[in-house]
Amino acid sequence: MDDVTIPDFNPEFLRLWIQHIAENNHKTVGELSYIFCSDEYILNINKEHLNHDYYTDIITFNYNEEEVLSGDIFISVDTVATNAEEYGNGVFKDELERVIIHGVLHLIGFNDKTDEDQKEMTLKEDEALELRERFT
């Protein structure tokens, strides 16, 4: 993998928070792998596996079995940092948590291909982010 610093986060908080979001959507959490990478690495994944030639903050590979969420979630720390400044509140941790829950929501079954889907996804992200303090 490329030389990327793994972001500082509390794994127990993430486990409890993600488990709660999954259970609220009638799912259980199986094996989730988070791969933190650079823009160039995620661009190569996007080209190779999805035939998309653009940078993104997250790519989620779904390995769900029935109601059990499982998958590989690639996150570009470069794009997360940029998006925190451009679209968020400037706090990397907040944007990282938004991206992490975005991947979980994809595994749950939410999409963001259309404008309507994007609005629903953003609403679900915002709802999940509001629940974070319960798990800290």
Automatic annotation (TrEMBL):
<dbReference type="GO" id="GO:0006364">
    <property type="term" value="P:rRNA processing"/>
</dbReference>
<dbReference type="GO" id="GO:0004222">
    <property type="term" value="F:metalloendopeptidase activity"/>
</dbReference>
<keyword id="KW-0255">Endonuclease</keyword>
<dbReference type="InterPro" id="IPR002036">
    <property type="entry name" value="YbeY"/>
</dbReference>
<dbReference type="InterPro" id="IPR020549">
    <property type="entry name" value="YbeY_CS"/>
</dbReference>
<feature type="binding site">
    <location>
        <position position="112"/>
    </location>
    <ligand>
        <name>Zn(2+)</name>
    </ligand>
</feature>
<feature type="binding site">
    <location>
        <position position="102"/>
    </location>
    <ligand>
        <name>Zn(2+)</name>
    </ligand>
</feature>
<comment type="similarity">
    <text>Belongs to the endoribonuclease YbeY family.</text>
</comment>
<dbReference type="GO" id="GO:0008270">
    <property type="term" value="F:zinc ion binding"/>
</dbReference>
<protein>
    <recommendedName>
        <fullName>Endoribonuclease YbeY</fullName>
        <ecNumber>3.1.-.-</ecNumber>
    </recommendedName>
</protein>
<dbReference type="GO" id="GO:0004521">
    <property type="term" value="F:RNA endonuclease activity"/>
</dbReference>
<keyword id="KW-0963">Cytoplasm</keyword>
<dbReference type="Pfam" id="PF02130">
    <property type="entry name" value="YbeY"/>
</dbReference>
<keyword id="KW-0698">rRNA processing</keyword>
<feature type="binding site">
    <location>
        <position position="106"/>
    </location>
    <ligand>
        <name>Zn(2+)</name>
    </ligand>
</feature>
<keyword id="KW-0378">Hydrolase</keyword>
<keyword id="KW-0862">Zinc</keyword>
<keyword id="KW-0690">Ribosome biogenesis</keyword>
<keyword id="KW-0479">Metal-binding</keyword>
<keyword id="KW-0540">Nuclease</keyword>
<dbReference type="GO" id="GO:0005737">
    <property type="term" value="C:cytoplasm"/>
</dbReference>
<comment type="function">
    <text>Single strand-specific metallo-endoribonuclease involved in late-stage 70S ribosome quality control and in maturation of the 3' terminus of the 16S rRNA.</text>
</comment>
<dbReference type="InterPro" id="IPR023091">
    <property type="entry name" value="MetalPrtase_cat_dom_sf_prd"/>
</dbReference>
